[in-house]
């Protein structure tokens, strides 16, 4: 099962009526029915390059309202292991780089894969990045009661040294300059 709710998955579960009978779309027809721009990473890049003249300045990628599997259970497991609860507001957020097991798991989950694809497909413009991810759960800020969020800090490799080590414990201020470019999406999908 495609846990990212991609266009390919949505087309594959669609039913159509043929000669009065509801049937799944034949597998050989699926590729013909998927839009050319079908990955979240493509849509993000198109949005970003349409709003800036300097696409290489992308620094933050934020995802809020995460509901897909297996991202949400993974985040719950990390919250419970590190904080003993899933109630982890911004003030108690957790940040991981890709050298940590948590960072690797988050980078490999459906929502992290969107960031991965973005960095891979647009490396010629963005250059090499050393991403780190901050996760938190702002309960009560939406109608679901939980609001699982990720903020990816896409640190350019050449600036890596100027940002120091990855925070293990939260600061009271937001990391990074306030004017730094940010892309933010509510998420129900993956790459």
Helix count equals 6
Overall pLDDT: 78
Q: What percent of residues are in strands?
A: 15-25%
Give helix % range.
Answer: 25-40%
Total count of strands: 7
The H/E string reads HEEHEHEHHHEEE
**Form type:** globular
Q: Oligomeric state of the chains?
A: single chain
What distance lies between the first and last C-alpha atoms, to the nearest angstrom?
A: 15 Å
Structural class: alpha+beta
Task: Enumerate the spans where pLDDT stays under 50 for 5 or more consecutive residues.
Answer: 162-180, 185-191
**Strand order across the largest sheet:** 4-5-6-3-7
Radius of gyration (Å): 18 Å
- Biggest sheet overview: 5 strands, mixed
Summarize the structure.
With 191 residues, this protein is of the alpha+beta class.
Q: Can you offer a commentary on this structure?
A:
It is a single chain. The chain is an alpha+beta fold and 191 residues long. The protein has six helices and seven strands. The chain has helices at 7-13, 40-51, 71-83, 101-108, 110-121, 123-126, and strands at 15-18, 21-24, 60-64, 94-97, 129-137, 148-156, 182-186. Mean pLDDT is 78; it is low at 162-180 and 185-191.
Relevant terms:
two-stranded antiparallel sheet, 21% strand, five-stranded mixed sheet, disordered C terminus, 29% helix, alpha+beta
Set down the secondary structure blueprint.
Layout: H1 7-13, E1 15-18, E2 21-24, H2 40-51, E3 60-64, H3 71-83, E4 94-97, H4 101-108, H5 110-121, H6 123-126, E5 129-137, E6 148-156, E7 182-186
Parallel strand pairs: 3-7
Antiparallel strand pairs: 1-2, 3-6, 4-5, 5-6
Helix pairs in contact: 2-5, 4-5
